[in-house]
Amino acid sequence: MSASITVLQAQSDTTPLNILRLIPGILLLAAVGYCGKFLEKFINTYAKSHHWTFPNIEYVLWAIIIGLVISNLLSVPKIFQAGVATYEFWLKVGIVLLGSRFVLGDILKLGGISLALVVIEISLSLMLMHFLGRVFKLSPKLTSLLAVGSSICGVSAIIAAKGAIDADDEDSTFAIAAILALGALALFTFPLIGHSMHLSDVTFGLWSGLGVDNTAEATATGALYSDAAGKIAVLAKTARNAMIGFVVLAYAIYWAKQGQAAAVENKASFLWNKFPKFILGFLAISLLVTFHTFSKDQVASLANLSRWAFLLTFAGVGLRTNFREMSKQGIRPFIVGALGEVLIAALTFGLVVGADRIWGL
Amino acid sequence: MANKPSGNSKQITLSLDSWAVLLALILAAAVRFGVFPKVPW
Fold first, then answer.
1. Beta-carbon separation of B31 and A8 below 8 A
2. B11 lies in a domain?
3. What is the pLDDT of residues A67-121, one digit of tens each?
4. ipTM summary value
5. Is A283 an 8 Å CB contact of chain B?
6. Looking at the partner chain, which of A14, A96, A294 has a beta carbon nearest the beta carbon of B24?
7. pLDDT tens digit string along A230-247?
8. What is the total count of domains within chain B?
C-alpha cells in the first residue's frame, strides 16, 4: 500500500541518485510487460501451428498475472520497489499520448456524455457510500475517504482527500486497500460480464471508466476487453478524474466547518492544486492532432508510444497487488467497499446501457 | 508546478503530473521531428 502513496513523492524528487534508484524497478516493469506481450504472441502462434483452438489471452492479462505471481508468491525485492511504484507515472504519460487517438470532436461528444454520466455516478456513489458507512458504523472520516475513492478516482483521490480533511494514516490505508482489492476483482469480472452481455466497445469502455475506481485498473479493464474499449475507458475515467477538486473541496469545507480540518482559504487555488494536470496534456496532444500537426504515421507512432507506457502500467498493477497485505487491513471497510462497488457497478451498468439507448453509443 | 526559493537561486520542483506531461510532450516532439521515425508495437 505504501508504494502507492510514496510514488508521488518519489517522482518529484529528481536528484540523480533518486532517479538511479528507480531504474531496477522500471526495468522489471518493462521485463514483465514485455513477457506478457511475448506470451500472447507465442501462445497464439504455437496454438495455430498445432491447429489448437485456444482463446486469445491479451498481453494485458498476461502482464498482470505475471506481476501478481511475482508479488504474491515471490514478493518484490526492495531494490525494485521504488521503480515499480512509477507505474502511475507511466499511466499518466500513456494517457497524455493517448490524446493522439482522439480528435477534439470525439472528446467533446464522448467526453460530454461521460461527464453527464460522471455527475450522476458521483452523486449516487457518495450517497450510497455514506449510507453504507453509517450502517456498518465506520468512522465518519474513513467513510468520507471510501466515498471519495469509490466515486472519483481511487488512490489519488483518497490521497488528495486525506490531506484536505486531515484524516488518519490508518483510515486512508484501509480505504486504499479496499479500493485496490476491489479494482483487482473488477479486472477479472467486468470483461466476463461485458462479453456475456455482448456489450459494444464504447459501452464497455464507458462502463469500465465509470465503474472501476483506480485509473490504472480502469484502463487495464477496458484494454482487457478490446483496444477500442481501453481508449474509451481512459476518456471516461479522465472525465471522472477532472471532478476530483470539486468533491475534495466540498469535503474539506465540510470537515473544516466541523472544526476537524484546516479551513480552505483560497478555493480557486485549492481547485487548481487538486486538478490532475495530465488532463491538460491529453487535451494539448488531441488539439495538435486535430489541427494535423502530425502525419498519419506519426499519429500511429504516438499511439504505439502510449501502448508501451500502458504496458509498464499493467505490469505495475500486478506487481503492486499483494493480497496478503490487503487481508491485514480488516474486513469491515472491505465489506463496505465491496457492497458499495457491486452496487456502483450495477448502477453504472444501468447508466451506460441507458445512455446507449438514448444516444446510440 | 511551483517555484521554491533556495538561497540565491530558485529551485524548480514539478509534480508527478507535470513530469508526465513534460515527458509525453518531449516524446511527441521527437516523433514530430523524426527522432523516432516509426515506433513499432
1. no
2. yes
3. 999 998 988 899 999 999 999 899 999 999 999 988 888 888 877 888 888 888 8
4. 0.78
5. no
6. A96
7. 999 999 988 888 888 888
8. 1
